[in-house]
Design goal:
Elements: H1 4-19, H2 25-37, H3 43-49, H4 55-68, H5 74-80, H6 86-99, H7 105-111, H8 117-130, H9 136-142, H10 148-160, H11 167-172, H12 179-191, H13 198-204, H14 210-223, H15 229-238, H16 242-258
Helix pairs in contact: 1-2, 2-4, 3-4, 4-6, 5-6, 6-8, 7-8, 8-10, 9-10, 10-12, 12-14, 13-14, 14-16, 15-16
């Protein structure tokens, strides 16, 4: 027989589950956050909600399960992937990333090939957060995705792997058609301290795009090789954008102090 406290908790969980389907997005978010605070007590009703007819309830339930980090939710979440709409699938993918179980990696790799842009984007982002080397091949393949934002996230995800053998595919993205992808690739080269990319980064200093020049200057600063000082000094002399000029000046000062 349930105690009074247990009955109150059960009612609270039931009410919160119902609020997951509220028309007001802020109410749904609050209910999801409150359910996550209940921890394991909320897992069973949330798992049941994954099969609810209301997509908003399913989406919010998945998010709550992710916040809880419930290992028991991994397989039920994976089972939902093939049948969910892209909007709900995104929440399922985010939940799997938060839980962090490597069992999700093969399914997320498959999602990278999904025809829906949002699903591919979320899958690449999730694989980057998980950092499992099993996903390397698929993330490299995602560098050829037709969508700029997917390629950008693929660069970011691969940079997280901190693997110098990835410098070739990442360096290729320094000449991508998207400025956002090029900037992300430059940041990746800086994070990896990749000296083999110095020439390409120096060429980016001459780009007509401000973001290219800024990212290149910051990456050269991070790599810390004084051999690029002549290029940086030339770039500073011709640079007319204040933020970029400041980044170049910081790089020069840092490299000069280390000579």
């Amino acid at each position: 027989m349930l105690t009074m406290s247990e009955k109150r908790k059960a009612r609270s969980l039931t009410d919160l589950i119902e609020e997951l389907g509220n028309r007001d997005a802020s109410v749904r978010m609050r209910a999801s956050l409150e359910l996550a605070k209940h921890g394991e007590d909320a897992v069973a009703p949330l798992l049941e909600t994954l099969a609810d007819r209301d997509p908003e309830k399913r989406k919010a339930a998945a998010r709550a399960l992710g916040r809880i980090g419930a290992a028991s939710a991994v397989q039920p979440l994976l089972d939902r992937m093939p049948v969910e709409s892209p909007a709900v699938a995104g929440a399922v993918i985010d939940a799997l990333a938060e839980i962090g179980d490597p069992a999700a990696v093969p399914f997320l790799c498959e999602a990278v090939l999904n025809e829906d842009l949002s699903v591919r984007y979320n899958a690449v982002r999730a694989l980057g957060l998980l950092g499992d080397r099993e996903a390397l091949g698929m993330l490299v393949e995602a560098l050829s995705d037709p969508a700029n934002i997917v390629r950008q996230r693929a660069v970011e995800a691969l940079a997280r792997m901190d693997d110098s053998s990835l410098w070739v595919p990442l360096a290729e993205m320094l000449i991508d058609s998207s400025a956002g992808v090029r900037s992300q690739a430059a940041r990746a080269m800086g994070a990896l301290r990749e000296r083999r990319a110095l020439g390409r980064l120096c060429r980016l200093l001459r780009s007509r795009f401000t973001g290219d020049r800024l990212a290149a200057a910051e990456a050269l600063d991070d790599i810390g090789d004084p051999s690029v000082l002549p290029e940086l000094r030339e770039a500073k002399a011709r640079e007319g954008q204040g933020q970029v000029q400041q980044a170049i000046s910081r790089a020069i000062e840092s490299l000069e102090s280390g000579e």
